[in-house]
Batch of 2 targets.
Target 1
Amino acid sequence: MSGSIPKPFIEDLVGRTDLVELIGSRVPLKKAGREFRACCPFHNEKTPSFWVSPDKGFYHCFGCGAHGTAIGFLMSYDHMSFVEAVEELAHRMGLDVPREGGNAPAAPRVDESLYALMARVAGFYQEQLSRDARAASYARKRGLTPQTLQTFGIGYAPDDWSEVLKRFGASDASREKLSAIGLIIAREKSDGWYDRFRDRLMFPIRDVRGRVIAFGGRVLDQGEPKYLNSPETELFHKGRELYGLYEVRQNRAPLRRLMIVEGYMDVVRLHQAGITYAVATLGTSTTPEHLRRAFRLISEIVFCFDGDRAGRDAAWRALQNALPEAKAGRELKFLFLPDGEDPDTLVGKEGRERFEARLNDALPLSEYLVTHLSTAIDIRHADGKARFVAEARPLLERVPAGPYRELLLERLAQAINLSGERFVAILSAMPGDSNRRANPANGNSESFGAQPDTSSRTAAQQRRITAARSGGRGSLVRQAVQNLLLFPAIAAQISQRDVEALAGIEEPGADLLHEMLVSLHEEPATSTAQVLERWRDHPAGARLAALAAAESIAPNAEAASNELRNALQRLARATTAAEIDALLAKDQAGGLDAAERERLKQLLTQSRDPA
């Protein structure tokens, strides 16, 4: 896997993006002073409360609270992952996304002419569907409406061995390109080529930008294989792509879950019925990469399988592949349809509401795992329980250490009437066991605004610290952080001495203020959006985004700079006074040593002459 995207590149990309143009191409914006406004695209409203600030590079809705940068907007509106959003912004500017570190080089840039050729062939297939009476009749018989055919770009490959070859492969170079994208195949016993897809309903597979990267073809009558997919090519890697994901992202309703089904027709008919969160794997089992890609967008995935033996076998394979991605905060569920039914036929009979009602019966991964093992094993006696533990162990070991694994272990133990401790003891006693009891990671980073321990402060110290706060406008630190966030260029006006002085201040958020100043001294930023992207993964990232959306304290950069310097001076004075109080209290209680007395003398001198 290639390395991460350098943060300076991301910040520069966000700084160069015209946020008004980006959002305005999707949402009608109206100018309102120095900003722009619209009805929020993330919730229904009649009065505009969605504001876009080109100066900040930031958007905010005062109705639902949605806010973010250009990257955040693409992630929320176009349902992109973070990396996909960065790549989309880079593509808009004609830039390649650099990578750093990693064990493998970044993938080479694909020839854009291959995408153009795919698009031309897809258009040809669509034309053929409209002209071929038999293919059009088949599409109608399967219940597909003209709107659905257009939305998914469904077409028809003629019943001819060389129609695509004749139309798009006139030269050696064009034939090589058709071969490279899997549309023609070289003959084995003679020179020449022939079309891969013939007499099939064609389902174009699109990437995140809507470009056709492959096809799936279904026979109209009897024939094998029933479905034929494009081979792996420069454009297409079936272990990563999900059919219908592009169409899911075009739906502007909030995306709360993905339903993974098995066939192209299942996806199309579900979307047509209004279940616009259905996707399908492409002739392969669900892979960890499929799940990682899906979990970048949502936190709930429902696997939907036919109720027959083949469907249950596919579900068990999906569960085993899903275990490495089972973590706290994610939901994996399994929905089994009645025997003899698939999503395509069932949604046609029942409609959207009744089909979606079945989701209430979907089994969480933990329950499906227990049910599957319990059905295959008689757990009423010791032998069966021992086998249950043995079967569960390799599955449990595939789950990442953390809270979910702990809870899953407890559920497995409960299934055979054992305590969690006893279950672990049996696991540990098994030969060759590599199981380790997983403990949740203990995070120790404080988010901005967390209150430090004040139990050891004297009353006088607490009064000094309280005096450093400004009523009605939040603490001095909060004001300083917001000024720095909204006008990051003012960091250059703060002396290194004042930055270093922050390191000893015990005020909530002072560590973040210090970290921001140090970072902005080393790598200056010019916009709020750049600062937010730099701190996107920081524990205080969400709090900073909220501050960016709050009303500005200072009207301009000059006022912000003055307020920031004033806040730093007041914080320093309050900290000095608090330390003086502590030393005086100790002197009264039991006396100071020589070093402490010298420190008190130094502090008293500084308090009289701050300069």
Target 2
Amino acid sequence: MTLRILAPNVLALGVLVGGIFYLDQYRDGLIDAKIAALQTQAELIAGALGESALTGPEDRRRLDGEISARIIRRLAVPTLTRARLYLPSGGLLADSRQLVAAGRQVQLRYLPPADPTDHAMHFFNRIYDWLLPRLPRGPDFPPYRERLGSGLIDYPELTVALGGEVGGAIRMLQDESLILTVAVPVQQLRRVVGALLLSADSADIEEGVRNARLAILQASALALTVTVLMSFFLAGTITGPVRRLATAADRVRRWRGRRAQIPDLSRRHDEIGDLSAALHEMTETLYGRLDAIEVFAADVAHEIKNPLTSMRSALESIERTEDPKQQRHLLAVMAEDVRRMDRLINDISNASRIDAELAREESEAVDLTSLLQTLISVRQSVDDGPGPRFELRVDPDNPILINGLPGRLGQVVDNLVGNALSFSPTGGSIRLTLEQQGKIAQLTVEDDGPGIPPGQEEAIFQRFYSQRPAGEAFGRHSGLGLSICRQIIEAHGGTITARNRSELDGGGNDPSGGARFTVHLPMP
């Protein structure tokens, strides 16, 4: 991940620097500016020659070599440009290079600067010298040639100047530096009496481009250093915490009895903080599920152990008695224990499948009004004895819809109704009320039974809790019904609570008034 963060930043900077470092446009601008300056200088010198260096009759005046040489020496030599004056026939009349040598003057030429003593600049110069040959080259210019007596052949711009126009050209030396030339006509009024060829090399231009590129190189090195450091810092703030979270998750995977803690990075207030909080909650949920499985396994073992112990005692007693009546009684006890184990195993299997089914099956729109009407209709058709009456309070014209699993929601209602039937006396009533409260669907199931023992309102939802009416045969219920109801309702995002009716009606927690179970489910 560090490389993936570093590479785009460095690559983007490299592309930007490469584009800036390719300074053809800047170099072309300098060349154009120097050509314009050469043309201005050539026109000034040509004007001076046309005014002061002509001799002879008025209609046949021509350039005087000595006067022209003095003017060229005075005007061209100090500017470090080479000036050559040609006659209309193409012959060379004066050359500033020869004039300087004849006058024993020293011609100054700027040499490339010596390596700076500063180590940093020396380092950047070495990088530049290595990089320069690898840069894209500009357009190819014709080579520069200089031969005696062949000015019109080697310099076509002279022909243009002798025709009365301004000409120019760019040529290349063997070291790939440039020679810039400008040719202007020397005129007496409108008559061309000669042509001035002014030339200069591109040393100052190359030096300017070099300095600009070195400045860009230094700035790029600083930007690269900052980019790399910031990339590593950014990578450290991302990869470090992610690596810690991955290590902690691996410890959770290899968990062998000791809880592995997920680093708490929620104070970051970013995506990694959210990831840390999510992993922490997931791990706590996982540990809670593992603890629940352990407790469930222990409870199952304890519940199954009771009928097994009873069966083993009955079997041992059968082996020791020869009384037929006693043997029949013991066999009946064993048969009841077998039926008890069968009910217990079926309920345990049902409870263990609920989570998987809730996670696997797709939710759908469930009409609670129609669901209650169907279940109560089935109950009334099955329970046609002198049992409690059913009172269903719903609005058929205003169906209440929720998202869920109809089979499991029907199981909740069936368990609550079955629980109410177990405790309701003959002639009592079981009232089911369904109503909408904002975005919440509320279902209440009330009975006229003995109610819930004080302090047991939450305990009755625990697994294998059993508080049955007096006179009911032991072992007919596993104590998982209400626990399954809470499990299903919470999986649907709802809640289920139990209270005595007298407590809710303001009459104190008197269990003799019956119980009321309230289910709240969110509506879409």
